Amino acid sequence: MTTTSPALIIIGASGFGLEVHFLAERLGRRVKGFLDDNANLAGATVLGAPVLGKIESWTAHPECEFVVAIGNPRIRRKVVAQMGALGTPAFATLIDPAALLDQRLVALGQGSIICAGAMFTTQITLGQHCIVNLNATIGHEATLGDFVTIAPLAAISGCVRLADLVEVGTSACVRQGVTMGPGSMLGMGGVLTKDAEANTLLIGNPARMLRQLPPL
Length: 216
Ligand SMILES: CC(C)(COP(=O)(O)OP(=O)(O)OC[C@H]1O[C@@H](n2cnc3c(N)ncnc32)[C@H](O)[C@@H]1OP(=O)(O)O)[C@@H](O)C(=O)NCCC(=O)NCCS
Fold this sequence. Notes:
about 30% strand, single chain, about 220 residues, mainly beta, Rossmann fold, about 10% helix, five-stranded mixed sheet, 2 helices, binds coenzyme A, UDP N-Acetylglucosamine Acyltransferase, domain 1
């Protein structure tokens, strides 16, 4: 990506938004600012970039690209849907220069964010608006649906299938060939040895269900 790329607007000016600002600067992208619905951030400056307004005001910046920097998959999907109801935003796909990802071997959906140290091998597919955070690993033939979030240091083994809106917590690992159903989550440090049902939250080693999550 070069400095001639369109200016970038980051949706979400809290935790992961700061990480994405860091990533955008590493890519030489000009960050025009943030959009955030948090009233406490109205008019604020975050990392030297202005909070330009609420998310719905994205339509005032047609020359820009957007990236939704919200870690929670369900909220991220909702925000993308809300933006899409007002038009067709151009979503940027951001890959940190220090990620190991060969785009001939990995199919990556629009709007996805790949952070420094993330490593992908071969025959991997990711849907739209996925996040693969710092130092996570994604093994051969893994498939990630849309709006999947992989936290730092997580290990996704070969042939794992993560359905839409799956979340894998920090330092969690998923055994090879295992499937996680839509909307399911593995908590930080979890070791998932068997398939996870849709909309379940699992923790521990071996991972067991903590509770049911709301339906998608
Ligand atoms: C699993 C998780 C979603 C549960 O959150 P929660 O619903 O708020 O649950 P609580 O913090 O109330 O914890 C409930 C119980 O489970 C335990 N617990 C919470 N997370 C746990 C985990 N990952 N592994 C083992 N036990 C866990 C708590 O200690 C608590 O135990 P207690 O009842 O004996 O006191 C959360 O702890 C988690 O792991 N989130 C992912 C964090 C992450 O990876 N962030 C990425 C940042 S980039």
